[in-house]
Input
Amino acid sequence: MSEMRSNLRIDGPRLLNRLADLGAIGDTGDGGARRLALSEEDRQGRNWLKAQMHALGLTIATDKIGNIFGTLPGREDGPPVMLGSHIDTVGTGGRYDGALGVLAGLEVVAVLRDAGITPRYPVCIAAFTNEEGARFQPDMMGSCVHAGVLSLEEAYAARDADGVSVGDAIRAIDAIGTLEPGSIKPRAYLELHIEQGPILDSEGPVIGAVTGVQGIRWFEITLEGESNHAGTTPISYRRDPGLVASALNVEARQVADSILDQRCTIGRMEFTPGQINVVPKRVTMTLDLRNPNDTHLDKAEHHLKEFLATTAKAHGVSVSIQETARFAATPFDERLIVAVEGAAKEMGHASRRMVSGAGHDAQLMAAIAPAAMIFVPSVDGLSHNPREFTKPEHIVAGGDVLLAATLRLADA
Amino acid sequence: MSEMRSNLRIDGPRLLNRLADLGAIGDTGDGGARRLALSEEDRQGRNWLKAQMHALGLTIATDKIGNIFGTLPGREDGPPVMLGSHIDTVGTGGRYDGALGVLAGLEVVAVLRDAGITPRYPVCIAAFTNEEGARFQPDMMGSCVHAGVLSLEEAYAARDADGVSVGDAIRAIDAIGTLEPGSIKPRAYLELHIEQGPILDSEGPVIGAVTGVQGIRWFEITLEGESNHAGTTPISYRRDPGLVASALNVEARQVADSILDQRCTIGRMEFTPGQINVVPKRVTMTLDLRNPNDTHLDKAEHHLKEFLATTAKAHGVSVSIQETARFAATPFDERLIVAVEGAAKEMGHASRRMVSGAGHDAQLMAAIAPAAMIFVPSVDGLSHNPREFTKPEHIVAGGDVLLAATLRLADA
Output
């Protein structure tokens, strides 16, 4: 039987067709898709997905936050191997982010059925609600509720920019199920995803064996100085928050260059009043710090806060810092990472270990089960963009590796 | 007669009353005034001013750009000593900026009339149109036209944010006169003005003998990089225009600290798309460079442009620079500066030489006549602000120095 299984491959055109079919729901006409969580397009996507699961003979269950599970029974009962991701998108999303992981899971199940294989343990395909957080915050909402780090009540109470709550939206599209969240605790969780970054596309190889998700810390910083006339105010009299903000940006780059795997991003700076001939009175800015190692992240945060305090004081500028997000670094399960590497080798693809720069449902699942991820290249690293693209041969490679890894885990 | 003249002093309460009367036109209720150029409030201010000139028996003439001249005849004909400034304000202006120079000029004339003194040369009080440039650009429009550096046609064609032209606005408030601009070429031009900066208020003394106006260069800079995901894009892959903009701000401070009298200001930076987790794609920013010495200003501009080009290149960011304003440094007339210093001493006030950080009508008049300025302190350096304030005793000191300097020049 292992002989036969090692010859198993996914049906590439079938997976690509499913990606095209789901991509047609919320098609934005420019290659992209828009299926905001719990929107009409999301409803259509969910119904399409359940129809696919139904056609494959899976047992379908939906939980109270709208997470959809389609299960192929195993020869034994017990916790399934779960293959999951999400089918919601950001406002200007692409066809691959999230969709790939769910549809490749369907393809794995389809191959097993076609080959007449019943694995030892059940295989469950999961689509988690509102991974993107584009309409309702927090992101990764469905997997947060599943993992028990967010209560159902908190999730229902979240509102979009129009004041519509998750509770109302989920009822409006009839996406609410009866399953208690967290009921299905898998023996292993695997998620195939596009990298959303440039590394595999630029440097290869085709398969990333993801060792974990970076820790993330977000800060909103307000610097208050004094508005002054650019012509009449000597430099020594100034209290310029723009200068302090700029110095922090330059220092953040130094930190990123000197601490292993550290990423620092200042994505926004707003100067008030923002006039050419006026020293700004106030600057609001953001700081995004990421590192796969929380100890390194602590070091980066500590250094930059010290630098900011010292620099602001030297310029007579006051500082207010609000932490708006904090996710600990999530290391994935070593046994699963090895399974992914072995599966890649079995399928004839080189792989490299790498860290996920973005957040994924897998990091929540890692709290309740062994978890890992498989990355395939994103052309030019683009994502959250209609031009998001992964080459068909890389889609197929990722699907094959997911299939082989699933067999290793579901028959272990 | 010189004995009698050395005892002459202005009537302080009368000058302060006139400042209050003009400040009541366009009173914003918070201590400030709003008399945008060629607005209804400007019309009322102009009519009030002409009535004051008429009551003093001055010969009134208005030119085709609306500059108002009221002349007290001298014992001899010939070019007058001109005492000028402006009565328009910015949108949220104060009671002193501009108004002080015109009304102190009126007070000088009033004192001479009261004392029965006819100076050797005429004394002409001038109020120039649209010094502020808050509604119509360029600023210092009336004195630019008077000095011949801006044509009447160009001035008439300037439009405000609502599309109303200067030509239409000046006719609508009946502020257009018959005098050809530039007809009156004074033998000397003096302008009393509030400092609009913190130096005299912080360090004293009461009187600034202004030696010139800084050169000014304005730049709008656009930096284009690449928008990338803050989590998935390693630092080495980034093309971050925000980092380049920030480095320029830090470098500009170094330049200001190392080149004599150099002022550098970055008053605006805008990050696009401006999201916490996205490396910005584009930054637009401003750069304001000032120095009383054009050679030093050249050096600052050259250094910062080189730094920007090098830094942007190193980060894969493209640079576009547009120069939006350039005024050469204007040194004032040494004989007039000495006259101001002598007048201050005669009136019992210490003075210091200083440079004007802001632009003034005097810098245009310097192109066609010997010119100088007298500064008095601005409390906390505030200006273009309802809280703009100069202490009554400093107003009176400035008026006395203007009176004494006028006598030195008009009887020379």
Q: What stands out?
A: Chain B touches chain A through 59 residues (CB under 8 Å).
